[in-house]
Amino acid sequence: MEERKITMHGNALTLVGKAIQVGEKAPVFYGLGKKLEPVSLEEFADKTVVISAFPSIDTPVCSAQMHHFNKMATDFNKDVVILAISCDLPFALNRYCAAEGIDRVITLSDYKDLEFGLKYGFLIEELRLLTRGIVIIGKDQKVKYVEYVPEITAEPDYEKAMEALRQLS
Questions:
Q1: CATH code at 78?
Q2: pLDDT at residue number 1
Q3: By CB count within 10 A, which of 5, 119, 123, 139 is most buried?
Q4: Where is the signal peptide (predicted)?
């Protein structure tokens, strides 16, 4: 398997798992929801799904990413769902969303089984956290857009993701 790297402050980190590609069938995964309940990607099979992956909600860049996607959610109809996923505990995600008024995205925690991180190639081996990035899955369950942000302290390319979403409308 090809070794993939990202950086954090210029220092190399290893991504575990195969990089997902546009056109592939989106792997089904489970994350933990707000009440520690398992939530499956299959629950959103009739929707376009935007996955916003990030390392930890308690960092400025991750917070900015969360706010951006919460605002972006107002631009789309009910056929688009935004999942924000990290290895933060559900309690931390709930606390953050309540304090920051984040109410238009669904938060999922990958801390328990790392299923999303492994199946989508977002897991950082050295940190046991997810790398930053975006995945868009169409209603046909195929991957339509993927971004693995090469420097984890940088924000994703929101405009490219928005353009990919517009093309699905």
A1: 3.40.30.10
A2: 53
A3: 123
A4: none
> Helix (H, G, I), strand (E, B), or coil: what is residue 114?
coil
Q: What is the pLDDT of residues 23-67, one digit of tens each?
A: 999 999 999 999 999 999 999 999 999 999 999 999 999 999 999
Give the pLDDT score at 168. Answer: 86
HSE on the CB side for 80, CA within 13 Å?
A: 23
Beta bridge partners of 6: 13
CA distance 111 to 2: 24
Output Rg (C-alpha) for the chain, integer angstroms.
15
Specify whether the CB–CB gap between 106 and 39 falls below 8 A: yes
Whole-structure pTM value = 0.96
State the CB neighbour count (10 A cutoff) for residue 121.
20
- Containing structural domain, residue 146: 16-168
Q: Does some domain include residue 11? A: no
